[in-house]
TrEMBL record:
Keywords: DNA-binding, Repressor, Transcription, Transcription regulation. Residues 39-58 bind DNA. Signal peptide: none annotated. Residues 16-76 form the HTH tetR-type domain. It comes from Conexibacter woesei (strain DSM 14684 / CCUG 47730 / CIP 108061 / JCM 11494 / NBRC 100937 / ID131577). This is Transcriptional regulator, TetR family. GO terms for molecular function: DNA-binding transcription factor activity; transcription cis-regulatory region binding. It holds the Pfam family TetR_C_24. SUPFAM superfamilies: Homeodomain-like (SSF46689), Tetracyclin repressor-like, C-terminal domain (SSF48498).
Amino acid sequence: MLPANDRKGPGVATPPDRRAIILDKAAELFAHKGIAATTVREIGDAAGILSGSIYHHFDSKDTIIDAIVSSYFDDMLAGYAEVLRSEREATERLRGLIRSSLRCAADHPHASELYQRDRNHLRETDRFAYVGEAVASMRRTWLSVIEDGVSAGAFRGDIRPRVLYPIIRDGLWHTVEWFRPTASYGTDDLAEDCFALFHQALAVPVPAAPVAHAAP
């Protein structure tokens, strides 16, 4: 049981997490303006605090970027690992990777845009070397699922997996730029539609049944 002074009665709001607000506002600014063009002062203004107060939570702008980006990729890789643990068939793994990617993008919309905008900066900075490693791991996961599907006869083998992967990846990641979930059509609904689209492109074509002709 919580101590009496820690218990909140009905209608008593919990103060917002200042660190979380800073990260959210910073991610939005980085996504829209880019890392280089965003200043700590602008982050402070957006978060409603003095820029100097940010240093009570983060020692530099790079530390803020690190917190945003590492959380995004940690969640993405964890989601992929769960799909591989829970699914065995390539088709269901494809469905799972699509759903997991879109859920993660929905949970970290600005981080996804930040990466797409400044990926070269992140990959070329020693502090963010893990970004390249995470992206390479994600690529290996997708390629292995596609290749396993081809080997099992579930996916067509006439299109190179290394060509398919970036098409699928970019199609999913760029949804943060236009997709806004509603009560009637959420992220998982979008995932099912994306799966239907990509699976139709990947699936081995089923030969059409011969047309029966009426006897003369």
